[in-house]
């Protein structure tokens, strides 16, 4: 096993939001999905379902759905929505809609609290998404995690015929990055690791947390 190579992939992965044309081959897509297949999941429920499309027209519609939602939010809150665009969502070689089957939560026989079950479900899907992203990054392909907010989920559900009771959680474009983005800052290990017991002096102040994305 080449741990260094794996760490390189982990460090190299970026959220790619500007893509150029270029195909993700079937062989590449298969490896990406194979990586998802091996993700750990709560009670090995494997609750993921992926709708995969290469259809340009559907992608254009996805893009429009996100654009319209963004414009609506911007009208309500021009400060926080300023300058951000979502037009990367549907401008790629492959679009993967990441869904969860909540019926798998019934298998968590020893996890009774709804919040705990929800955590297992969401974490399991997140693992599969991250596996795919790392595999894509190892092939020099870009991906980005795109949230499916309540405001867009019904339209996406209809477009891709996602049946109830499945939940649509994230959309993941896969494609060739126009330029590989610069790394965003990461906290130092020492800042978030606490040996033996939690070091209260390291607990971040509210101001530090709020200031973080601007650094
Ligand atoms: C659960 C989750 C949801 C995210 N949702 C979005 C999103 O809706 N749109 C987006 O552009 N990026 C989204 N991101 C990507 C993050 O902004 C990104 O991972 C973070 O800023 C770090 O940058 P990096 O991925 O390039 O290292 C999401 C990431 C995660 C883990």
SSE layout and pairing:
Layout: H1 3-12, E1 19-20, H2 26-37, E2 48-53, H3 56-76, E3 94-100, H4 114-138, E4 142-143, E5 146-147, H5 150-159, E6 167-177, H6 189-192, H7 206-211
Helix pairs in contact: 2-4, 3-5
Flavin mononucleotide binds next to strand 5.
Describe this structure in words.
By secondary structure, this protein is an alpha+beta fold. It has one domain: 3-Layer(aba) Sandwich (NADH Oxidase). About 40% of the residues lie in helices and about 15% in strands. Strands 1, 2, 3, 4, 5 and 6 form a 6-stranded antiparallel sheet that branches. Helix 2 packs antiparallel against helix 4 and helix 3 packs antiparallel against helix 5. The chain is globular, with a radius of gyration of 19 Å. The model has no long low-confidence stretch (mean pLDDT about 95). Bound molecules: flavin mononucleotide. Flavin mononucleotide (FMN) binds next to strand 5.
CATH-derived architecture: 3-Layer(aba) Sandwich
Total tally of structural domains: 1
What can be said about the biggest beta sheet?
Answer: 6 strands, antiparallel
Portion in beta strands? 5-15%
Name the ligand types.
Answer: flavin mononucleotide
Query: What is the global morphology?
Result: globular
SSE succession = HEHEHEHEEHEHH
Give me the Rg, rounded. 19 Å
Count of DSSP helices? 7
Averaged pLDDT: 94
CATH T-level topology: NADH Oxidase
User: Which blocks of ≥5 consecutive residues have pLDDT under 50?
Assistant: none
CATH class: Alpha Beta
Identify the CATH homologous superfamily: NADH Oxidase
Which class of secondary structure composition applies to the elements?
alpha+beta
Fraction of residues in helices? 40-55%
Count of extended strands = 6
**N- to C-terminal separation?**
36 Å
